[in-house]
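Inputs:
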Amino acid sequence: MPQYDILAMGNAIVDVISSETPDFLSSRGIQHGCMRLIDATEAEALYGAMGPGREISGGSAANSVVGAAALGARTAFVGRVASDQLGQVFTHDIRAAGVHFATAPASGGPPTGRCLIVVTPDGERTMNTYLGACQELDSSDLDAALVAQAGILYLEGYLWDPAAPRAAMQAAIKVAREAGNKVAFTLSDVFCVEGHRGDFRALLESHVDIMFGNENEVKALYQTDDIDAAMAELARHACITVVTRSEKGAVVIGGGHRYEVPGERVAKVVDTTGAGDLFAGGFMAALVQGRSLPDCARIGCISAAEVISHFGARPEADLRTLVASKLD
Amino acid sequence: MPQYDILAMGNAIVDVISSETPDFLSSRGIQHGCMRLIDATEAEALYGAMGPGREISGGSAANSVVGAAALGARTAFVGRVASDQLGQVFTHDIRAAGVHFATAPASGGPPTGRCLIVVTPDGERTMNTYLGACQELDSSDLDAALVAQAGILYLEGYLWDPAAPRAAMQAAIKVAREAGNKVAFTLSDVFCVEGHRGDFRALLESHVDIMFGNENEVKALYQTDDIDAAMAELARHACITVVTRSEKGAVVIGGGHRYEVPGERVAKVVDTTGAGDLFAGGFMAALVQGRSLPDCARIGCISAAEVISHFGARPEADLRTLVASKLD
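Outputs:
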């Protein structure tokens, strides 16, 4: 039995969340609902313009393993913070959520990464990410024994962008494969797919057992407007393909079957940040517990619905109780 | 016409808020619902034991002026952060709320102060404050011209504890008095009253125009269990005396009259942090706008009700719209 159910590699980020009008974005030419990378200078300027914030730990794959841990999965995380207060906050929060996290903080170099998240009245989040120390993760941080001891290695597409972390993820895939473990991957965002389409397709061709993406990401991957065609392509490669569809739920293809799962109703969408992350976390936690694929997707939807009902991408309610009340 | 309506002096603190069971407090011998000061070692140990947090700027008088600014008052704040990330967060948030804040950050010395806030399922907050850089505020930070240019100088009792900030507040009172401005003071907490009863009584005797306190603080001030007797004592000194009574609202004594104002109904109390702060902020903002004393207290209650309906001691809703919908 592996020591961990899921080991995630991803950006170690603290979210800085403020509420703004749509004008705040349009007047700056920032596309509503997207994620983009910004440098330190732009981060400072944008932060200066933003209203009062809330700081809540984030990072896509980190959010996923926090969600999975809340559902009872044994989880670990690899990612780089700096030796600073935001790094302490990230480290505290992920450990307090029950996730093993032992990557050494970078000293010197850029500060801990942060994501400046603008939430508009529709609940949509627009993310402006300053990666900072996240990019300092490299292969030397990789504890091969840890990777070998995790049933699923989960990788976020966001972290494919900087070169050193990408090499670390490639090394991790090799270790996981040799140990006979599963590899799961999320496409993360259309901009990641656009930037690394060849790599992502090659990954799917040979290495990935579980693939997560939303409809836009999957369509971008195969450069088509036909979601069914894109999913058919995907299904050729990955053992399990999961496409999230916001309020419409998710589609899962696996074991020769296709399942459509409805979305979970949310009384009021406050902040959509982390919806996809919590979906993936809930899905994987259920999978390692031996649930059926449609149940995995349902639990993903329930987890996502919780996290969009409040500010921040980490669950506030007891996910296990919530899932039990809806499913069992 | 003064440049600012309200200038507050207080602790410059970032709140770290986690949700815990009552056992978390009782097993550590921490009294539910109180505020206590802790040192760096205890802060580290307690933080390590707390669950995942949210970081939201706080500080009692700082919260008050943020609330007053949201209601249209022209406000300024004096308090000390360190040159670190939490100091940047505090500085950003208070300025983004429209409050003038120009106290130089301390370099070297202890880090920015933080308050480890444990919120229990009843919504009550228990505050464990590490003052850090807050204590480094001294008379040299005082911009006498700024103090002279503020209609109301508002002081928090919490900041009376450390010696250097106390001296700075005493100097500020002198400047405000000489400029013919008003001085407002909050008793802050029973522990502050217990530690500085003589000072607080002397302040009331000669210097304070507006005094805020809750029932327990006012009773502690005059060492009596009879709230009416305590309020009669208070009314002898201060021009305006305001006693907050949680969900029961507030009592105001001023101009030879006594007014009782009902509390504002709250659908669900999430986190009581900042209730008294927002009451005082709302009250003073209304006062400088020339509202009647009962209306000032009502606006205080409406502001307090908003802040306890979510995590964090800074308002999330548009207070001006909220007040208009309830009062005008």
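Remarks. Chain B has a mean pLDDT of 95. The interface with chain A takes residues 18-19, 47-48, 50-57, 66, 84-86, 89, 92-94, 96-97, 111-112, 312, 314, 316 of chain B (CB under 8 Å).
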